[in-house]
Give the backbone structure.
Amino acid sequence: MGAGLEQFALWLHETAPSQWVRAWPWTWAICETLHFIGLSLVIGIIGLLDLRLMGFLPRLPLAALRPLLPYGIAGFVINAVTGVVFFMGTPEQYVTNIAFAMKMLFLLVSGLNVLYFETRHARSVLALAPDAPLPAAFRRAGAISLACWLMVLFWGRMLPYIGNAF
């Protein structure tokens, strides 16, 4: 990647918050645990909704899943906060890592997908009869979302193994 990102990583590595993350032995373990809990909420709730949008579980009304979304969002927030802590602790591990870049790419695509779906189709979800056939746009949005979240999971897990490959 660019020298600017490497300079940023070096600068961030020397800041007090970065040093605190590395100095306190329980920070990483607590954040890993919270990250796993957040990921479980995201994959469990958003994944279930995605499967339903794709046409699976046809007896489960989409409107019944909508109240679970705040828990999925809470999981995402937990992951965002703990992800920032990880990044602050060892920025040099992330800024030149292809796995991190791919994880961020799939997070971006997932975010754009949900933004598109929520602005274009969310109201029609509530109006659908439980046994109504799902529009192709719903199936597409669910498939894109599920694929993106699985890729976020995959690339996040590959972070320590692939390393700085740029």
Observations:
- The two ends are 6 Å apart (CA to CA).
- The CA atoms of residues 31 and 82 lie 5 Å apart.
- The chain has a mean pLDDT of 90.
- The chain has nine helices and no strands.
